[in-house]
Design a protein that fits this description.
Number of helices: 5
Strand content: under 5%
Radius of gyration: 13 Å
Oligomer: single chain
Distance between the termini: 21 Å
Helix content: 40-55%
Shape: globular
Structural class: mainly alpha
Length: 110
């Protein structure tokens, strides 16, 4: 199974559980199968994770949080790369929190 597929599955499980994860959490859950990655490589994996996410649903990659439980530094880039509307800097964290909450609701019964 490709890394992006494994990450997607873990993010879906996290959405069902109502939790966010960090890259460190993902590495631990994958028992060493996920190496330490350059941010560019992290971004590539997250792009693939959300390749088939419908435009009217939040991106699963939103569940990857920074170590301070804020939006990961790649959040804005992944949104932009998937053609999502730009969120102003002053609204970014609240928008991210709403997306995360939306994922929890969406995946609760999937």
């Amino acid at each position: 199974m490709a890394l992006a597929d494994q990450v997607r599955t873990l993010l879906q499980d996290s959405a069902r559980a109502g939790t966010t994860v960090t890259w460190g959490d993902l590495r631990r859950r994958m028992s060493g199968a996920l190496p330490f990655l350059h941010p560019d490589d992290q971004g590539e994996i997250l792009m693939v994770v959300d390749h088939d996410t419908p435009a009217d649903e939040p991106l699963l990659s939103a569940l990857v949080a920074g170590t301070d439980l804020s939006p990961h530094g790649l959040y804005r880039h992944i949104r932009f790369s998937h053609g999502r509307e730009r969120v102003p800097d002053e609204s970014l964290e609240m928008h991210w929190r709403m997306e995360v909450f939306g994922l929890f609701q969406l995946w609760r019964h999937r």
